[in-house]
Amino acid sequence: MRRLVLIISVVLAALLSAPAQSASWPKPLAEYIPEFDSCILVYQLEVNLLTVQNPERCALPLSPCSTYKIPHAMIALDSGVLKDPAHQLPWDGKQRARKATNRDHNLATAIRHSVVWYFQQVAQLIGTQRMQDYLDRLAYGNRDISGGIDRFWLSSSLKINAYQQLEFLKQLKAGTLPASSVAQEQVRNMLILNTDVPGMLRGKTGSCRGNPSDHGWFVGWLTNDDRTTFFVSNIVGKKAWGIKLQRYVYEILKEMKP
What we know:
The protein is an alpha+beta fold. It contains 9 helices and 8 strands. The strands form 2 sheets. It has a 6-stranded antiparallel sheet with strand order 2-1-8-7-6-5, sandwiched between helices. A two-stranded antiparallel ribbon has the order 3-4. β5 (192-193) and β6 form a beta hairpin. The longest helix is centred in the first third of the chain and has 15 residues, at 2-16.
């Protein structure tokens, strides 16, 4: 069954990679991200318009890294493992490189600061069988959590491509995922970013080291004047972190013309 789902995903990616038309920018999308091999999907919902930069790269499955915190948070809320976005877990006392992670966190701040240890604790609370059941229901990527309950989304067994990320985000925006409407709404609210991009921007970065090379994600959607624009992007290369990609995508969104 999983093999069939993967085959269908590849066929779907191929179909989506060749839109009949595209939005326009002052320069080619590839020039916005000059230092990395990149994938960019921009989907304008109301006009059903998909623009793709590097379709082959976009069809390549990668570890979701911290973009998995989006479904992870929803699973935790929907299952009742966490009661709400204010659900706090105690810091384990281990000093980590990013100072923002070295304190107690709740779900909302753990998403904002991308706190790995918080979600590792949450994964243990969810448990292997329940996590697998949710990933199967969500049809999220290859659904493979064999890399370990506290590691499978971090340069490990779980893989997802850009087209699959886009489909997941579209369903989250519409509230049609197999989870409660409350859990989906809470996750949507936790993804809101404070930026200089006109409109309301929701998004999440993710970064992974190695396996086989560093890569980063930035995914989400922009709502502006009753228009919704989804974006899914990734970069691959040495120190290809999601936080770098985020700045590039901001420029793409600011300069996009309908």
